Amino acid sequence: MTTTARPESAVTPEAAPAPAAPADPTFEELAGRVDAAVTAAAELDDPAKAVAEELQAAVEAVHKAGLVTIVRALKADESARSVLFELVDDPTVHLLLSLHEIIRPDPMTEANRVLVSVRPQLQSHGGDVTLVRIEDGTAIVRLEGACNGCSMSSVTLRNLVEEALVAGVSSVTGVEVLPNEPSPTLIPLDSLRIGADPATEGWVKAGPVADLAEGKVSPLSLTAASGSTAELVVVNVEQRLTAYVNECAHEGLPLDNAMLDAANGTLTCPWHGFCYDASSGECLSTPGAQLEQLPLRIDDGDVWIRVGR
Ligand code: FES
């Protein structure tokens, strides 16, 4: 029996550490790589683009066939089904199965995707839409900006948001718009204090409450005993009276011919369409803008408005 000496170069060094395995790419890295490839493919000339698209379609067809087989097998095996559900929760697996239409995106994701397509049209009206939730087939949304509460809202809702959501999301059959949530305009308590002689406190009798018709904007010009004067409008929404200085918060133009939408509780300036909450004066078109409210009280069938101090 003969022995052969092992060549020096074949001796494995005992202390050498194993090379570290490369880290798995993150979901963001994978998605970024796809995005970069899509951007690069868009720059190709038409024949090259057609080849790239065919290659993509061919590879995806293979992947889809394999994935469908895997999912079917996991679904069919009761003990493996829980593994499938766990896998679907993984963002990369979820994306992969969604891309191949093996699982449906959840209704919120679908609805948000649809809203992305109508958003430019809403924004062209100075508005926007936010999906709040989906409940029993009804998509509950909030309209923002110029669309919010204005007469434009019903058109916007019906023509854009509702049509798009009902057509684009199988589980949505209708849309509900949440009412605005303005912060109420609080009149400082001391401005409401009525002294022994109302006239000396700046209160001016504006006339019988019956003269300020429901659903109307009534312009008034009042002068207090002190000589202070005020041009104002009184808005009557469902018998709730509110007095405002007759100046739009936009360019200070008068609101005599403002449009009062009693159903929506909004007041829209006739000049450039600034839209206000009729009861609080809060501008719904431009956050932070506000009509100036004047103290108003009803006494024995007469309306009193405080003008100056
Ligand atoms: S002055 Fe009212 S919207 Fe411009």
Beta strands, count: 13
What summary fits the major beta sheet? 4 strands, antiparallel
**Alpha-beta content class:** alpha+beta
How far apart lie the N and C ends? 122 Å
CATH architecture of the largest domain: 3-layer Sandwich
Oligomer: single chain
Q: Portion of residues in helices?
A: 25-40%
Beta content: 15-25%
Order of helices and strands: HHHHHEEHEHEEEEEEEEEE
The gyration radius over C-alpha positions equals: 34 Å
Overview of the structural elements:
The protein is α+β, with helices and mostly antiparallel strands and about 300 residues long. About 35% of the residues lie in helices and about 20% in strands. It folds into three domains: about 25-100; about 105-175, GMP Synthetase, Chain A, domain 3; about 190-305, Rieske [2Fe-2S] iron-sulphur domain (Rieske Iron-sulfur Protein). It has helices at about 25-40, 45-75, 80-90, 90-100, 105-125, 150-170, 190; strands at about 125-135, 140-145, 175, 205-210, 215-225, 230-235, 240-245, 260, 265-270, 275, 295, 295-300, 300-305. The strands form four sheets. The chain has a four-stranded antiparallel sheet with strand order 5-6-7-11, with no helix packed on it. A three-stranded mixed sheet has the order 1-2-3. The structure holds FE2/S2 (inorganic) cluster (FES).
